[in-house]
Write a structure and sequence with these properties.
Layout: H1 6-13, H2 16-32, H3 46-55, H4 64-68
Subunit structure: The RNAP catalytic core consists of 2 alpha, 1 beta, 1 beta' and 1 omega subunit. When a sigma factor is associated with the core the holoenzyme is formed, which can initiate transcription.
GO biological process, one term: DNA-templated transcription
Protein name: DNA-directed RNA polymerase subunit omega
């Protein structure tokens, strides 16, 4: 079972309310949109992976939306 200290993630985001918004948005990207995790998955649930990404400073309020966008190359094809 994964152990996640939420306080570390709260310190990175600023408050618990924003943490819920950012972590749920990132977990949804991982679970249903096929986005690649930026930390080891280790057979954890998407919410745990999202919290670990936040704790490590890889995901925050400013970049969570950008991480979920489809990147297109110069010819308009999704990468």
């Amino acid at each position: 079972m994964a152990r996640v200290t939420v306080q570390d993630a709260v310190d990175k985001i600023g408050n618990r309310f924003d943490l819920v918004l950012v972590s749920s948005k990132r977990a949804r990207q991982l679970a249903t949109q096929g986005k690649d995790p930026m930390v080891d998955w280790d057979n954890d649930k998407p919410t745990v992976v999202a919290l670990r990404e936040i704790e490590e400073g890889l995901v925050n309020r400013g970049n969570v939306d950008r991480l979920g966008q489809v990147v297109e190359d110069d010819m308009g094809y999704a990468e």
